[in-house]
Structures are given as C-alpha cells and as structure tokens.
Write a structure and sequence with these properties.
Length: 258
Amino acid sequence: MVWRCRECVSLHCEEVENISSYYENYTLHSEDKLNYFANAWFSVILRRLENNGLTKKHSMLDYGCGTGLFLDYLRGKGYNNCTGYDAYVSKYKQPSALSAHYDVVVSFDVIEHVESPKALIQTFENLLKPGGLLCIQTPRADGIDLSDPEEYIHILHMPYHIHILSERVLLDLCGESGFLEKTIFRRWFRDSWLPGTSRRFFETFMKAHGNDMESAFDPPKWSILLGTPALWYYALFGYFFPKGKQDNMMVMLKKHSR
C-alpha cells in the first residue's frame, strides 16, 4: 500500500516485514557493465556536475555506489580522486570511506530506500568539506500520479522505495542541515539523446515486454522489436518526447562554508 501526505505531497510505502529478503536478488544489482547505455547516461551526470563546479582536482564520494560503475566511468575520464561506499556491496562497504571528508558527495537513487531521509542528509553534511557540493538523485513525488499506477510502477518501485519525497520536502530537509540550493534538474539522467538511450524508448520497450523491469536486462525479443514500429522511431527520436510529468529530480546543493 502506498499513501500520499496531503500536506507535503510526499509518498510513503507501508512497512514490510523482512524487507532484506526482497534485496537478495535485486534486479539492479545486475548492472555491472560499463556499456553503451551506462556511458550515455553517466555523461549526463558528469556534465551536470562539471557545470556546478566539479573539477578533476576534487575528491568525491559516491554514496550507495552499487557495483561502482560510475566510479569506473569517472576514472576513465581522468577523475582519479573518487571513492565509493555501499553497505550492501562487499567491495565498497569499508567504513574508512565514511571517516574522510570530500569536496563532492553524490548519491543516486538511495535516499528513497532509507527509513530516515533526514538522517541520511545529515550524514552527507558530515562527509562534506565546508562549501562542498552535494548531488542527490531521487524520484520526485510531485510528478507521480497514483491514479495511473501502471505508468509509474518502476518509479514507485515498491516495497524498495520507502519514502518518495516531494521537491519541497527534499529541499527543506537539506536546508535544515545547512545546504544552499544551487540547481535542480527535473529530467531523469537516464534520458539521453543518443540512439536507444532515451527514456521514451526503454519504457516503451519494457511495456512491450509486459512492463517487467527484468526485460531491460534480458536479450531483446526480436519479434517484438520488429512488430512495434514505435520502438524504432523512439530509438532515434525518443529524447524529443519527454515524459509529461516530471517524476525525477537531481538536486545540486552547496554546504555552508562556516
């Protein structure tokens, strides 16, 4: 069950017993190859970070880095002073990563998974140097229409997404920890202009495969590709047909300098 707060518009999932069992074969853990699609989407993130002040001299922590794909991408681009932390991946669960201070902290699709978003933001504040840059990517509750759950099934992603915050709540929580707003992007970074990497294409692709997220990682069924002309059109031009409601956000914030 999912419910929306009438005051702040944020979404919340009812408590689920033994949530850890759901993560044992978590689909997104299979994203372990720096392929054409990952390179296209990571280039969107890097461009946004560079436009907000990231340089190759900066130290960076990817909090909730998964298998470390973004770290591999950054190092391939000459960003060698970057570290990853993920409590659920043995390679990156070393506590020493949380004892340092960084110029930049990034966290992609993590805050919606935790019981206390406020506590996580405070963790980010403790990890950053004064004046440091914080980047948080997360679903945006404002753009999710619960009257059409099938359309938003992957962004709702229950029961993994415990709290999907509204834009105002996320900014307010960050402000309470002393962060100053810099930039907000409301277009998902997984929406690139390169052929086959637009959101419109891969969501249409999944719908043609029964709207199952696993289909995004399985070999394509050519019978469906050949029989769905819209897929070929969206493979080339899908970027120019963004989703109407903005259901994702990436916020860039600056830590106070005191």
